[in-house]
Design goal:
Elements lengths: L1 H16 L3 H8 L3 H9 L6 H10 L11
Helix pairs in contact: 2-3, 2-4
């Protein structure tokens, strides 16, 4: 559930940024295919990559703690 929320938050931030995923992927140090697969839910990304992506779009992820 937490990964789904992160992916949805990041998808929304990427869409709202108006930036191309090719540019965001390059800035985060991953391939466009890796970013596309993450956004489609087909793969996960390391936390350092998520940090670089969120910084690239000027956003921050809210991570809920499990109860």
């Amino acid at each position: 559930m937490r990964r789904l929320l992160q992916r949805l938050q990041l998808r929304q931030a990427i869409h709202s940024s108006g930036r191309l995923i090719t540019h965001l992927a390059a800035e985060a140090g991953i391939t466009t295919q890796q970013l596309s697969a993450f956004l489609a839910g087909d793969r996960t990304l390391r936390s350092d990559v998520l940090d670089r992506l969120t910084a690239a779009v000027g956003a921050s992820l809210i991570v809920a703690q499990r109860k």
